[in-house]
Each structure stands twice: as structure tokens, then as C-alpha cells.
TrEMBL record:
GO MF: hydrolase activity
Choloylglycine hydrolase/NAAA C-terminal domain boundaries: 30-347
Keyword Lipid metabolism set for record: no
Entry-linked InterPro entries: CBAH/NAAA_C, Ntn_hydrolases_N, Peptidase_C59
Gene3D superfamilies: Penicillin V Acylase, Chain A (3.60.60.10)
Protein name: Choloylglycine hydrolase family protein
Alphabetized UniProt keyword annotations: Hydrolase, Signal
Leader sequence residues: 1-29
């Protein structure tokens, strides 16, 4: 059994993670949506953007896996064992995930939330229930089956303002959480307390706060997938140019407020398809619209690098299937969580290898 946190290995990995995130401080471009199939199956999609390579791997964590939180030397650390097995994306070789889904169909992600996240000081928190920002999502996926259970348990945990050892930087996150019933919430740590919002839209991006994004929707109430009618002024009629005129004015830039509106537009207007597998493909096409190619956002002048979409994840919350594709390999890969022995004793890790050569088409011989 691998134990992480208070030992040298745990501290070193946390330091690498936090150092990398500090260098990527300008990164703010994650996008999350939830789309329902006609049969009610919820399908979750998310992109991850950073300004450096996150060295991501996909991990399957079994039940009863022991976690030990990261703490400064001589401080007690939280410990817990996973009640549920889960699959997710880990970075820099550590088992705390930034995105994932568990065996009950609970899914979610850690999305960047700079300028607004506010955590509890370490010395003001109970060490047995205090979690570092990068541990919080893993704690949720390993312990709870539904959004309702998560909401009921939040008074038993806090996120502490904990820079990783040797790096004076705290990771600012907020968290979209979805379950197999289609329920969604947003958890935002503000001034040391959790603000929890029901999220009937199923959409989240980054800063500012979720309630601000909801208010901002009021600026776009005339946006529609239905084409605009001709404008008549006196005897003159002005026809729109082509299709899509009802969407004229929808923001196209990559800032979080604009992506929120655009993601909501796609998710709300998407024509429902029959079931989970078809909705997975629908969500894949929607998420393609949030790809950020290398060079489109250049944060070098602010100490970062070229921010881009490193991977996109999709999860069928009823079938318990998790999908992922990368920037350099756009083939969607599948992890069927039901096919794993979730009572196994160790982590199962799939390196996120790239296949840079597109597979050839197969032609039938005449």
C-alpha cells in the first residue's frame, strides 16, 4: 500500500506539484459541462489547461486505499481510506486527482479559482479533518456516492491555506460535482467557509464566483440557436447573413465569463440524443469548441508560458465509463470502471502516452 503525505516522498511530490502550479499561475481556462441523454443519463465533460506540461496519468484507485494528507513537519495529518473505488487524472506521480469519477457515478473536478478562493489557516483547523486544496476532490470521490451526501458532509471538513513545502504558493480551486441522478453543485471555498450552490445549468468555468456567472447570464437572454427574423425598416428588409444569426453576440474569447456563456449555450441548446454512448460523442463535440491551441494564449509576459488544452475528459455517470484524450492525440480512450477489481491492493496507473501518428483508414479490397 502506498502512503503519501507526511514522509519525504509525499512532501517532495507536493512541492513539485505546487512549484509547477506556481509557474503556471496565469492558467485559468478549465471548462466543465453536464449534458443529459434522452434516457436521463448524465454525461460530464471537462477540459484542463495549464501553461506547462502536467505529466498526467490516469489512475484507478481501489476501495480501502489509505490516504495521508500533506502537512508541514511535526503537524498531524488527516488520514482516510477510500470507501469507493474511482478513476481520475493525477499529475506528477501523486494519487490526488484533479478530475475523476467513482464507482457510484459521482464525478467532478478541481477548477482554477484565482483571486476568490479563501481557505482556513492551518493553525485554526482540526488536523483530522483539514485537507489541502489538491486533496479535497480525492476526499469527495473516495467517500461519497451522491451530491446530497457531499453536501451533508461538508461541515465535517475544511480546506486549509497550505502552500506545498518549499514553495510559497497555495492552489486556488473551486469544485463542480455531479452524480448519476443528474444532480450538480458547485463548492467554492470563500473566506475559510464553503459556499455551496445548486447548479441546474451543469456549467462551470473559473473566476469569478458562480453566483456572479449566474447574474451575467442576464446579459445574454436574447441569444438563441434559432435564427433571427429579418429586420424591417420602412419598406426595406434586412436579412441575416446565413445561419446562426440568433447567436450573434455570443462571446468567443477564452476568458472564464465568456466561456461560461458559450458553454451554457452549447449545453442548453444541444439536441438530446438517446443514451449515454451517443451523449458521450455529443459532449466530445461540444468540448472541442473549448480547445485552446498552443500560442493562442501567451502568458510569458506575466511569468507563465503558452497555455493550452492538455486534455479533455468525459464521463458517462451511469455506465461508469471515463474517457480522455490529449492535445497531441485526439483519439478518445476509455476506462470502464466496472471492469476493474476495486478490491485490489494497489493503484493501477495508465501513463498518458501519446500516439502522434494518426491511424490509417482501412480500405476494403474490390
Amino acid at each position: 500500500m502506498i502512503k503519501w503525505g507526511r514522509g519525504f516522498v509525499g512532501r517532495g511530490i507536493a512541492a513539485v506539484l505546487a512549484g509547477a502550479m506556481a509557474a503556471a499561475a496565469p492558467a485559468q481556462a478549465c471548462t466543465n459541462i453536464l449534458v443529459l441523454a434522452a434516457d436521463g443519463t448524465p454525461v460530464y465533460g471537462r477540459t484542463l489547461e495549464y501553461a506547462l506540461e502536467t505529466q498526467s496519468d490516469v489512475v484507478v484507485v481501489p476501495r480501502n486505499h489509505e490516504f495521508i494528507g500533506t502537512r508541514p513537519a511535526k503537524m498531524a495529518a488527516p488520514k482516510w481510506s477510500s470507501r469507493y473505488g474511482f478513476v481520475g487524472v493525477m499529475s506528477f506521480g501523486q494519487p490526488f486527482v484533479s478530475d475523476g469519477m467513482n464507482e457510484k457515478g459521482l464525478a467532478g473536478g478541481a477548477l482554477y479559482f484565482p483571486g476568490f478562493a479563501g481557505y482556513t489557516p492551518v493553525d485554526k483547523a482540526d488536523p483530522s479533518t483539514a485537507l489541502a486544496p489538491w486533496e479535497f476532490l480525492t476526499w469527495i470521490l473516495s467517500n461519497f456516492a451522491t451530491v446530497a451526501e457531499v453536501k451533508a458532509a461538508l461541515d465535517k471538513a475544511v480546506i486549509v491555506d497550505l502552500p506545498a513545502p518549499m514553495v510559497n504558493f497555495t492552489l486556488p480551486f473551486h469544485f463542480p460535482i455531479h452524480d448519476a441522478t443528474g444532480a450538480s453543485i458547485v463548492i467554492e471555498p470563500i473566506d475559510g467557509k464553503f459556499k455551496v450552490y445548486d447548479n441546474p445549468l451543469g456549467v462551470l468555468t473559473n473566476s469569478p464566483t458562480f453566483d456572479w456567472h449566474l447574474t451575467n447570464v442576464r446579459n445574454y437572454v436574447r441569444i438563441s440557436p434559432v435564427g433571427a427574423a429579418p429586420l424591417k425598416i420602412g419598406s426595406k428588409s434586412f436579412e441575416p447573413f446565413g445561419q446562426g444569426s440568433g447567436l450573434l453576440g455570443i462571446p468567443g474569447d477564452p476568458t472564464p465569463p465568456s466561456r461560461f456563456i458559450r458553454a451554457l449555450g452549447y449545453a442548453a441548446s444541444a439536441k438530446q440524443v438517446a443514451d449515454g454512448p451517443q451523449t458521450v460523442r455529443l459532449v466530445e463535440h461540444i468540448m472541442n469548441n473549448f480547445d485552446i491551441p498552443i500560442g493562442f494564449i501567451d502568458s510569458a509576459a506575466k511569468g507563465g508560458e503558452l497555455e493550452y488544452t492538455q486534455w479533455t475528459s468525459i464521463a458517462d455517470l451511469r455506465a461508469k465509463k471515463y474517457y480522455i484524450k490529449g492535445y497531441r492525440d485526439q483519439v478518445l480512450r476509455t476506462v470502464d470502471l466496472t471492469s476493474f477489481d476495486l478490491d485490489a491492493k494497489g493503484l493501477q496507473v495508465a501513463p498518458f502516452k501519446l500516439n502522434l501518428t494518426p491511424p490509417p483508414l482501412q480500405f476494403n479490397k474490390s
